[in-house]
Amino acid sequence: MTPAGWGTPPVEPISQHYIVCGGNALAHRLVLELVEHYEVPVVVLVADRTRDHAPQIEQLPGVSAVVEYATITDEALRAVSIGTARGLALVEGSDQDNIHAALSAQGHNPDIRIVFRMFNQRLGDHIERLLKNGAALSGSATAAPAFAAAALGRPNSVEVGGRFLHVAFDDAITPDRICVVADHVDRQDLSRIRLLPEQQEFAEFVKLAREFGDDGPVRPGGVRRPPERSGTIPEQADAPQDPPGRHDPANEHDPAAEHGPANEYDPADESGPADPGGIAALQALPMEPREPISWARRLRWRLLDTMRFFTSARMRLVLLTALAAVLMAFGVLWYLNRDFGWTVYISLLDLAGAAQPDQLADIANGTGTGGIWQRVAQVVITVCGITFAPVATAIAVEVLGSGRRGQPRNPGAGTRDHVIVVGLGNVGTRVAVQLHQLGVPVVCMERDPQARGIGAVRALGIPVVMGDGPLEQQLRRARLRYSRALVAVSGDDATNVEAALEARHGNPDVRVVVRLFDDDFARHFYATLDNAASRSVSYLAAPAFAAALMGREVRGTLSVFRHVLLIAELTVEDGSPLIDLNRHDLEDPGGVRVIAVGFARSPRLDWNFPDRTRRLAPGDRIVVAATRSGLARLNTTLVEEETADS
Questions:
Q1: What CA–CA distance (Å, rounded) separates 508 from 529?
Q2: Between the CA atoms of 95, 96, 97 and 98, what dihedral angle is there, to the nearest 10 degrees?
Q3: Residues 6 or more apart from 415 whose CB is under 8 A from it?
Q4: What is the mean pLDDT of residues 181-208?
Q5: Residue 262 burial by CB count (10 A; 0-12/13-18/19+): exposed, middle or buried?
Q6: 179 band by pLDDT with thresholds 50, 70 and 90
Q7: Phi, psi dihedral angles at 5 (to 5 degrees)
Q8: Which pTM was predicted?
Q9: CA distance 535 to 489
Q10: What distance lies between CA 413 and its chain's CA centroid?
Q11: pLDDT at 373 over 60
Q12: What is the CA radius of gyration of the chain?
């Protein structure tokens, strides 16, 4: 490794470039986004060019230089020409290191665009205010919704303007859809899919206008609309489609889909009739769909949990017998006194051993409390109370002792229909928290007692299985047999695959979602297992980091089978090249679709704004759905216009 303070500067002076600091998987994906989709010069700063993803980054065409420095110092920043760079991305290292590097970079170049990775988002928001042109993003926060949605077997959603956008397929599409995001969907041959195809209703209108002209004849009864082309949705009803196959609608690991342009929209496809195929549409929900559990099921599980807390069958038999005796004695007292409140009062005192017995003088004078049967009932309750008291004391001591020792609680015997999250790193912690917020029971597994996520999930009352024992035993403690899904998001591919295979062996019906770094490994894994999905944090987060580096705000990512659809919000500022553009100018078939417009005079968004000729003015906002290459083309065009104007 190059000693601290040494480096290999670029061979020739460079300017107007972008700097990526890091050699991890996210840095690798980010460099790919910049050189392939945005076509900008990139200089990469790594700690060791022989480790991690640095060798692969150095082989990428379009990378101007790879500079090696152990730490991001002022000398290292000068070596990558920080003074003439347009943007800087800090995607590796701790939060503290990234904050220090961001502030140092701004000192060298006050106008540079800085995007830095932060796990602590609140701290990142505060640091953004200290920077003139900066953005703090979290790769785990960007990717966590996709993992959580995959565990629940539904598409993830992105919140925009109080609505939650998601992608629906075929029969799940409702008439109030926003737009079609894909057609020609053949689940047996996903290479035929077209993203953001041309809006057919406008194409047919233009075709009719050209056919008849302004003074053309009008057919009797009005002009009938031509038949719908396949790949579009009828206005009144949803066309029946083939049921979904085993393909996961968000499996992104496909090098052909990632690097090759074959799956993008091709205008040549318009030359002939389209083949039948499924469709995918963008829809909006008023709120994030939850996974509620009925109170009856929760009560049944709680009772079962309480019963199975005592592992000894003999102990359970003794306690049940004592409970039955107490209930019978309670019934006798109630029958003799006809006062329910007093009966409860005296029964509780008897259970605690605090009741006042009859005295001999009271019995002789005839002033006893209720006769022989009442005395027998009170004796029975008191004796049973002797049985219950030690058990209740043991439970209370164990609960209080575990809380004081800071130990996370284990899952109870009544835990059912839950999701097991393996690994409490950045991603695992956010996935567990999001599932908990959706009302889904969660059980976490972690071998490192110092993992940063243990405290966060413990504060929410989420049980955690700790220990270094065999994985099969740990999964059994996590109630794998009764779980609905397992999400393996540790930092090691082998550990994640082992957890998935052990889970499938212990519960053949469980759904497994695995975090895999290697694309080829992920593709083979996905092709081998049914009811499984693989995700890559770097693949999901890199488009958002690249767009933020270009000054565009990406609200989130949506998965359309092996493709990533970006939901971005653009604000029209004074001097922006967006001024005087309309939807015709912005939209690009196969690349960009304007789905909402917000006017400067109104805080709300108008979805599917019908006026396609209205030009944007300062203060307006637009929300677009775009492919990675489509958003890159839009950003490149706007940057070129801005540069030409300046």
A1: 11
A2: 50
A3: 301, 305, 441, 443, 463, 479, 482
A4: 68
A5: exposed
A6: confident
A7: 95, -10
A8: 0.65
A9: 9
A10: 28
A11: yes
A12: 32
